[in-house]
Amino acid sequence: xxxxxxxxxxxxxxxxxxxxxxxxxxxxxxxxxxxxxxxxxxxxxxxxxxxxxxxxxxxxxxxxxxxxxxxxxxxxxxxxxxxxx
Length: 85
Hints:
Blueprint: H1 15-18, E1 24-26, E2 31-33, H2 49-53, H3 69-84
């Protein structure tokens, strides 16, 4: 699953710089996660860094974006290939 940021976000700026896939950006009111770039840090870390560091625990898995580990790994590989191209 991709992660999502809920409206409980306090815009503390902790999540955006730790995302290895640049999936987090400022939305109209609070930070948002691009589900096409979110790999839950698969390929980079054992734990999603944004959720780990979030001081208000507002970054759950998005049930609307169910993805297994293999799918997340394929997304990571695709994003890695785009970086080198």
